[in-house]
Amino acid sequence: MKEFFSKYYTLRKHNLTVAWKKAKRSKMCYLFLLPYAVLFTMFFVFPVVASIYFSFTYYNILESPRFLGVTNYINLILQDDIFLIGLKNTLVIAILTGPLGYILSFLFAWLINELPRWIRSVAVIIFYAPSIAGNCYIIFSIFFRGDAYGHVNAFLMNVGIIDTPILWLINPQYMLPICMIVILWMSLGTGFLSFVAGLQGIDASQYEAGYMDGIKNRWQELWYITLPNMKPMLMFGAVMTITSSFGVCDVTMALCGYPSTDYAARTIVTHLFDYGFSRFEMGYACAIATILFLLMILCNKAIQSLLRRVGT
Amino acid sequence: MGKKRKEKVEKAYKKPVIKRRKPNRSIAGDLTLYIFLVLMAYIMAFPIIFTVSNSLKPLDELFKFPPRIFAMHPTMDNYADLFVNMGKSTVTFSRYLFNTVFITAVGTFGHLIIASMAAFVLAKYEFPGGPTFFKIATTALMFTGYVTQIPNYLILNKLGWIDTYWAIIIPAFASPMGLFLMKQFMEGLPTALIEAAKIDGANEWKVFTGIVMPNVKPAWMTLIIFSVQGLWNNKASTYIYSEEKKTLVYALQQIQAGGIARAGQSAAVMVVVIIVPIAIFVFSESQILETMASSGIKD
Asked: Which residue from A291, B129, B251, B275 puts its CA 20 to 30 A from A134's CA?
């Protein structure tokens, strides 16, 4: 055993000296990396660590943080009903719009792939525009306005389906579905671009080989040739989709108000805003952030291991 | 046996030449596809078209029923109102516009330089810690910025940057998306190009500015579009308090809150907000798609 350890340490030491020598040789590389590394550490790595640390404390900026242990987490799960509403809403939105938006992104990218070049570029612009147009979703608050002048209400009343206007964005019953429609409308984002580009990059000779080997229709072609080739892009698209669908808050805040009626449109992120920037309970807000962080990372890992099996 | 097989191979080989259509595609399938795509394109584009035409409608047409998609008497009054009416308020519309343009321009420029420098060494040099750093940066793609917002606030507060433009600009420099895309794209550059320059006596900085950067112009556009998208739409209300430093999107929400009387103006602001990212995308689409082709995450 002792021999093993001494061998292990010698090896480690050797590796370290080699690494150090290499590092000294590539000083220039570190200089190039330095500005980005400093900012990245300052605004991405350190905040995650700090957030986990603060989540175990009571901290309100004015006083120095007081250590609490896991009290914040216990309160969140056992006593904070509104957090549970937020968690439920976020999961519902993520589970419904995430996979659907992801599949739609791929479907559209795949469908427009064989169109002539100029039609394809126009189609990409049309499909990608909603997600790049940022705040354009606010127009939906005009469509779904609660009075008789809101376009959807006016239309439904004219047709005769309803006779009093529906308070689309105030009635908890309709809030989430409307938000989900808007989110789906915006779901052809970065992943979609990646899919379009990836599909273009697949070598045509692979398809020809596929025809020779007896692939009969476009579905077989999709599963046996296209999807395996697209794996890295599928992975990237999944990461983008998960990130955006768990971080939902802009759409619900803009359409349903903040806070929304009965907290019906609350998500984890809006709950985090509420405690972090309205009540200044930073420790508690950090606990929310940590839970969100873990949810996203776990979900990403799960999806990635799932995607490895595609096309096999 | 051998003859039969040869025949079969020849047949399969000739198939596309004779039919001129791709094999495995039916006409009915293609037709359904086109109809479906046109329908979907209409649904996707409708809200944006409606916003644009709303901004061109005079007040009486805005509330006509049934609403018309296109304005009957298009006018630029709403846009003029933005500058004339809001010109009288303490913070003019042009000030909001300037704030957003400034934040976007500086943030994007800095991001492009800093992320490209890091991506260059990560893609083209081997040094201890490099791959690990890139892995961490990729992990940062996997969670939203909201997770880090509170510690970010505390850090910016310590630095004294709260309520300045820098609170928005500096964190944007380190956006992991730009680094990721740039690094993936730079890996496609032939290493021989860099080696040759080194033999000619160029140092790393010369290689970077003279050879690598001019060759990755498509990736520039991609970084620019993603950075602009993030910064142009930034509401910045948590980090900036002073009215005169607030951004366009914040102004949009204020006008929106003005209600029905300002519906035309709010549509006009919305058009100003959405037109810039879309215009950049339209002009650089092919370059962006070229970059995105190397965007995949490999295990």
From this structure: A291
Alpha helix (H) ranges present in chain B? 2-19, 27-55, 59-62, 77-84, 93-124, 130-139, 149-159, 166-173, 176-186, 191-199, 204-206, 213-215, 217-232, 248-257, 263-292
- Number of A to B CB contacts under 8 A, please give it: 287
> Does residue A181 lie in a domain region?
yes
Q: Which residues of chain B have pLDDT under 70?
A: 1-24, 65-66, 87, 299
Contacts of A51 in chain B (CB under 8 A): 147-148, 150-151
Q: Dump the DSSP string for A201-238.
A: TS-HHHHHHHHHTT--SHHHHIIIIIHHHTHHHHHHHH
Query: What's the domain range around A231?
Result: 81-307
ipTM for this model: 0.86
**Chain B residues within an 8 Å CB radius of A285:** 150
Q: Taking Cα atoms as reference points, which of B297, B294, B187 lies closest to residue A308?
A: B297
Helix (H, G, I), strand (E, B) or coil at A248: coil
Using a CB-CB cut-off of 8 Å, the residues of chain B touching A190 are: 177, 226
**Domain B93-292, CATH:** 1.10.3720.10
Residues from chain A that touch B122, judged by Cβ atoms under 8 A, are: 33
Residues of chain B in contact with residue A158, where contact means CB-CB under 8 angstroms, are 66
**Number of domains within chain A:** 1
> Residue A210 corresponds to which tokens in the numbers above?
């596929």
Q: What is the CATH number of the domain that holds A92?
A: 1.10.3720.10
Instruction: Compare CB distances from B274 to A114, A134, A185 and report the shortest one's residue.
Output: A134
**Mutation to test the B interface, candidates A112, A132, A303, most B Cβ within 10 Å:** A132
Residues 6+ apart with CB under 8 A from B61: B68, B71, B72, B73
Nearest CB to A233: which of B126, B273, B295?
Answer: B295
Walking along chain A (312 residues) 10 residues at a time, the average pLDDT comes out as 86 86 81 91 90 88 83 87 90 91 91 84 90 81 78 80 80 86 88 89 84 80 86 88 87 82 85 86 89 91 85 60
pTM for the full predicted model: 0.85
The verdict on residue A9 lying in a domain is no
Domain ranges for chain B, please list them. 15-75, 93-292
Rg (CA), chain A: 25
DSSP secondary structure string, A10-73? Answer: HHHHHHHHHHHHHHHHTHHHHHHHHHHHHHHIIIIIHHHHHHHHHTTEE--SSSPPEE-TTHHH
Kindly state whether A178 is in contact with chain B, defined as any CB-CB distance less than 8 angstroms.
Answer: no
Q: What pLDDT, on a 0 to 100 scale, did the predictor assign at position B15?
A: 47
Q: Which of B33, B65, B174 sits opposite A154 (nearest CB)?
A: B65
A291 within some domain: yes
Q: What are the φ and ψ backbone dihedral angles of B273, each rounded to 5 degrees?
A: -70, -40
Residue A115: closest CA among chain B residues belongs to which residue? B34
User: CB distance from A23 to chain B under 8 Å?
Assistant: yes
